[in-house]
Amino acid sequence: MSDSLPALDLPLATGTDAANRATAPTGPVDVAVFDPPMCCSSGVCGPGIDPMLLRVSADLGWLGKQGLTVERVNLGQEPMRFVETPEVRELLDRDGEDALPVVFIRGEVFAAGRYPNRMELAGALGLSL
Fold first, then answer.
1. Among 53, 64, 75, 121, which residue's CB has the most CB atoms within a 10 Å radius?
2. Which residue, 41, 45, 58, 44, is CA-closest to 3?
3. DSSP-assigned letters across all residues of 100-118
4. How many H-runs (helices) and E-runs (strands) does the chain carry?
5. Cβ neighbours of residue 51 under 8 Å, at least 6 residues apart?
6. CA 46 to CA 128: how far, in whole Å?
7. Strand 13-14 relative to strand 108-112: parallel, antiparallel, unpaired?
């Protein structure tokens, strides 16, 4: 298993990408990530990039290269998506922003309050590293 990060210029469906936008984290989206408020859709912008967000972006890009559909929804840019998604709304009501991120795999909550790593994502999706 290699820990090297792939290039970040991989296409990811984002909440602002209307062509790939799902109305909920079910349906054609394999992985949906409801992120805390960030300056951009991936959080890897500006002069002080958080290494953890860089890893998450690379891991999600890797999933895209495996042929999966990945969607990211940013609380700062699309708050209504959080309100309109019952599981996310319930987690936020219970835990506040500590519930974020919420990661769905094929419509089911897989992780809340943390980003799973590539190995966890691959295992849950039946992919080999």
1. 121
2. 58
3. -SEEEETTEEEEESS---H
4. 4, 5
5. none
6. 33
7. unpaired
Q: From CA 117, how far away is CA 62, in angstroms rounded?
A: 12
- DSSP class of 71: E
The answer to whether 29 touches 21, Cβ cutoff 8 Å, is no
pLDDT band with cut points at 50, 70 and 90 for residue 52: confident
> What is the three-class DSSP state of 24?
coil
- What global pTM score does this model have? 0.75
How far apart CA 54 and CA 51 sit, in angstroms, is 5
Q: CB 98: neighbour CB atoms within 10 A?
A: 11
d(CA 88, CA 124): 20
Instruction: Kindly report the average pLDDT of the chain as a whole number.
Output: 80
